[in-house]
Amino acid sequence: MKVPLLDLVRQYECTKDEVQAAMLAVVEKQLFIMGPQVKSCEAAVAAYSGCQFGVGTSSGTDAILLALMAEGIGTGDEVITTPYTFFATGGCVARTGARPVFVDIDPVTFNIRADQVERAVTEKTRAIVPVHLFGQCAEMEPILRVASERGLIVMEDAAQAIGAEYGGRRAGSMGQYGCFSFFPSKNLGAFGDGGMVVTNSAEKAERLAIFRNHGAKPKYYHKWIGGNFRLDTLQAAVVEVKLRHLDDWTAGRQANAGRYDRMFQASGVVEKGVVVLPQVRQSRHIFNQYVIRAKDRDGLQKFLKEREIGSEVYYPVPLHLQECFAGLGYREGDFPESEKAAKETLALPVFPELREEEAEFVVGTIAEFYSRG
User: Fold this and answer.
1) For the chain, which end, N or C, has fewer CB atoms within 10 Å of the first or last residue's CB respectively?
2) Quick check: helix, strand or coil at residue 290?
3) Nearest 5°: CA angle at 110, between 265 and 8?
4) Could you read off the pLDDT of 250-286 as tens digits, one per residue?
5) How far, in Å, CA of 356 to CA of 294, rounded?
6) Is the whole model's pTM more than 0.90, yes or no?
């Protein structure tokens, strides 16, 4: 049996008629840049996320970069974030000329240690970028409190967490900005790159919209130096259609995660201490990934690959140890929980269409690996 980490073909089979009709509507009108579907997609995603405004972008990376640029963050500024995340989080900060300042993660949720954020604040700090990793929100209350007391901007990196909740509040709605990715592998994926920034501020939304279009308003009159960060109309049409199915897909992921939990407990690997299961700490975990800690992680992944079971290591090298960030002065040992997670974690297939027999094969294969010693 082959079990892929993600099978988007199965998802497409359920939505292809709707998606093809939406794409054809764009093609027939030939309005590929900022067509009407962009505006309707922005409104739908913003509403789903508990926000008033959405500004579509060319990628999730550009969503973060756009928010930073719109706030004028640059050389001489500091932005606090986590080293255990996809590169774009820290990379965008560095691209503006600002300095990423890292804070270690909680070993259970893999999200930034909110109780350590305040000690990282300096007179140069302008913003905090918490990451809602793997589909579960970071502990936001302490972060929002520090930001309010110190006059800092909060930009939520919610690329993996659309629809996740913290205390009933949706990811992306708690800070001044929420940044989403529509990369195809995300819970809400486009047919290519795409992203969005959501906000509850009309002024910030207007500024974002200007910055994403070369800083021009009206056309050819440039108030600021922005960029070409527009969401493609075809991608907006796809995302808007797929958004209608998102809650059902999320329920499927949650059901698969619960099934894994039961199967792993029954297999004995948890009791033996060789596998640690993900923990749900916030009010709605959407399971963009189902990530376990595993003894001899690399050996296990090799074993799974030999049996044609997909898995992925998110992320093998924390940002503070990346070569491009050597100039920041961090060293191995500075963020021990991030470094430990990088050596132990493994993502398993959890996509909504995963079949029960496939999940059984995944768990059985893992149990077999550890039974061999």
Assistant:
1) C
2) strand
3) 75
4) 999 999 999 999 999 999 999 999 999 999 999 999 9
5) 22
6) yes
